[in-house]
Amino acid sequence: MPTTLVVKIACRDAERGRRALADAGVLRKDAIPQRTPEFVFFPVTKKIPLDVAHSFSRKRLANRVSAQPFKTTLAEFLSKRELDAAVTSFDLVGGIAVIQVPARLEKKKKRIAQALLRANNRIETVLRKTGGRTGAFRVQRVEWLAGAKAFSATHKENGCVFRVDLRRAYYSPRLSTERQRIASLVKPNERVLVPFAGVGPFAIPIAKRNNAVEVVAIELNPAAAKLLRENVVLNRVSDRVRVVEGDALKIMGSREFASWADRIVMPLPHSAKSFLPSALHALRRGGVIHFYRIVEKRSGAHGGERELEREAREACAAAGRRFVKLGWRRVIKYSPALAEFVLDFKAF
Ligand SMILES: C[S@@+](CC[C@H](N)C(=O)[O-])C[C@H]1O[C@@H](n2cnc3c(N)ncnc32)[C@H](O)[C@@H]1O
After folding, report:
1. Which range among 207-221, 272-286, 331-345 shows the weakest confidence by mean pLDDT?
2. CATH of domain 168-347
3. Which comes out higher in pLDDT, residue 148 or 160?
4. Among 160, 196, 226, which is best to mutate for testing ligand 1, by the most ligand atoms less than 8 A from CB?
């Protein structure tokens, strides 16, 4: 295999570098970039100056055999029934595609991953979900299938950059619209608590949009908290975001945060209900809570949104607070029967 001219760029600058290379028309699409934990090697047609640290060298890179659609490539080696069973949608986190492969296609999982790698020139790594999100940290179980063996990536969302590590900390690109909605609601001088902050995709855009806010981001998982601290620095919001590592139940319930918050974002949809009493302790009178839950997908008289409302009303009544509903929306589909909903409410 012949060598290719490559430019080596640190992962944290890789997306900026990739865009500059693409804009200059020198990024080759016929070879697959190679990623190591620290660097990405992009194949290029010629050397150009870049405003991120970089160096040029030569490397052997795998070729993209075709740029035909994923499904067309799959049809070359899957039967009609297998093709019907295949899941062609995937999550893209930086250069990592996370796919689902049904058990009946187990033996063909590597070929499926290779096909995706070849079909999409933004993808450098293909991982497969091997189970649901488990434990308090809600981390996704994944296995590597193709491309560079990487589990960490730099992902862009809502004008911010996030270092993520899919094996060690929660991150899902599916909530980006909801995160943008929340950031757009925050007004100058607000104090915002994000008790289940993960690597920062709610807390950081809020601070990035508005330089007169005070955000406290709480995270229990030490690996996620470490990435969150890095992301706060990376996005230059250290003066507005304080990271507190620990249990949100205790931290929100502490004297330090009594009536502290104007707004609390509670993105822990499996168990946020049990955190409502301490969130109400931390919320000033008239403050807003965004309360996420996974409930029945259907809406209407007996729909999921009614369940959220009942839980929030009960928690407010128990805390001697008046509940005022602002609105609700279905955030994402979770399973055939369930969906994630958010209820926005005020508590006086
Ligand atoms: C569903 S994830 C959401 C993360 C982030 N907000 C996002 O949208 O990517 C929930 C996060 O809450 C954290 N977590 C779970 N229990 C917690 C607790 N008691 N206190 C603080 N964080 C907690 C998990 O480690 C995980 O990172």
Report:
1. 331-345
2. 3.40.50.150
3. 160
4. 196
